[in-house]
């Protein structure tokens, strides 16, 4: 896929379809970074980082209060999110260990198991679980 053949919003749309939060684009005029946020505004990632950092530094108390309020109101969500991430990490570590032991790439290990479907299913399920958690939280907050 050549990004130069797409308009900026088309490139963003493609990234969104692929489930990505950023996409590659022409270098930023300010900093030369080639990564853009894949949502409205399509800001340069590096400039956005700097802007956020400045805002947080200028509004330290306000930001800290917002974060702690959000955490207080979303304890169950955070607990489930941590658990889902832990499961995903453990699975990835297991795969990486096997890769290391046999000097194989991830794809070779998965193929060697003959259960590529099982691995894909695992990822889909953990992704699905995460989505369920997210939508569950949304349901609760309605
Ligand atoms: Zn920039």
Name its key features.
mainly alpha; two-stranded antiparallel ribbon; 2 domains; disordered C terminus; binds zinc ion; extended; 142 residues; 6 helices; 2 strands
Cross-sheet strand order for the largest sheet: 1-2
How far is it from the N-terminal to the C-terminal residue, by CA?
40 Å
What is the arithmetic mean of pLDDT?
79
Question: How many helical elements?
Answer: 6
> What gross morphology would you assign?
extended
- Main pleated-sheet profile: 2 strands, antiparallel
Ligands and ions found = zinc ion
Question: What structural class do the secondary elements suggest?
Answer: mainly alpha
DSSP strand tally: 2
Write down the secondary-structure element order. Answer: HEEHHHHH
Total number of domains: 2
The radius of gyration computed from the alpha-carbon positions, rounded to a whole number of angstroms, is 20 Å
Helix content: over 70%
Short account of what is shown:
The protein is mainly alpha-helical. Helix content is 70%, strand content 4%. The protein has six helices and two strands; from the N terminus they run H-E-E-H-H-H-H-H.
Question: Could you characterize what this model shows?
Answer:
The chain has 2 domains: 3-58, no CATH class; 74-141. It has helices spanning 8-17, 45-58, 60-73, 75-102, 106-113, 116-141; strands at 22-24, 35-37. It has 142 residues and is mainly alpha-helical. Helix 4 (75-102) crosses helix 5 and helix 4 (75-102) runs antiparallel to helix 6 (116-141). Bound molecules: zinc ion. Zinc ion is lined by residues 28, 30-31, 33, 44, 46-47.
